Amino acid sequence: MLTVINYTGAQIYAKNEAGFITYNEIVDVDSISRKKLYSNAITWITTLKKLGHKIEFSVKDSINGKLVTKNEFSVYTGSGVLEKLSGKFNYHVTIEVKDNRYRYTITDFIYHEYKPDRYHNIQATGKTKNLEETKATGWQKLWDKHRKTLDEKIKKDISNLKVYMITKPQVSDPLPPKKEVKWGRLGRSLKSSRTNNDRAT
């Protein structure tokens, strides 16, 4: 069960029973087996990894139709040549599949702060912040921006997932019927061939 919470007047999130912000939905699909839905989910995750997304598998259970990944998403300050890593969000994605339906759950968001050290190298400070925390004294605007950026990213990934999950098995075009070739008796064919050769000479 999810409860809709409005934190800032602009961002609307939902909390699960444990009080964590969660993106969750059961999606019905038409005539797609559990096995194919599992394969589609793997393809979606693999595609994200190829695009540079930081994803690690925690669970790959084809028997029970369950996938769990640990994901990482970086957020920045500035833009262009002034862009600097500000922090990274870690979170979990769970996809469960059955025949003709699947459920995704995205939750456990934790922000890890990054700042330059004395040598100007960007390093993790060891400070973390849960996405459920709304206040950020001294950097409220930046925190609100990071939360909004993450929300947009998650919603885009969900839309992308839904496209991949409805991919059905390709059905090969039937081969055209073979043209029947009648074979004559071997002796007759040889005789005909010899007659033609005699005429030629």
Can you give me a brief rundown of this structure?
By secondary structure, the chain is of the alpha+beta class.
Question: Can you put this structure into words, describing what you see?
Answer:
The chain has 201 residues and is an alpha+beta fold. The chain has one domain: Alpha-D-Glucose-1,6-Bisphosphate, Chain A, domain 4, CATH 3.30.530.80. The protein is 29% helix and 37% strand. It contains three helices and eight strands. The strands form two sheets. Strands 3, 4, 5, 6, 7 and 8 form a six-stranded antiparallel β-sheet that branches. Strands 1-2 form a two-stranded antiparallel ribbon. Strand 6 and strand 7 form a beta hairpin. The chain starts with a strand and ends with a helix.
Which overall shape is indicated by the principal axes computed on the Cα atoms? elongated
Radius of gyration using CA atoms only: 30 Å
Give the termini separation: 95 Å
Largest sheet: 6 strands, antiparallel
Instruction: Give the ordered list of helices and strands.
Output: EEEHEEEEEHH
Number of helices, where a helix is a run of at least 4 consecutive DSSP H or I residues: 3
CATH-scheme architecture:
2-Layer Sandwich
The chain-level mean pLDDT equals 85
Low-confidence stretches: 1-10
Integer count of domains: 1
| CATH fold descriptor | Alpha-D-Glucose-1,6-Bisphosphate, Chain A, domain 4
Based on DSSP secondary structure assignment, what is the total number of beta strands?
Answer: 8
Structural class: alpha+beta
Residue share in helix = 25-40%
Strand content: 35-45%
CATH class: Alpha Beta
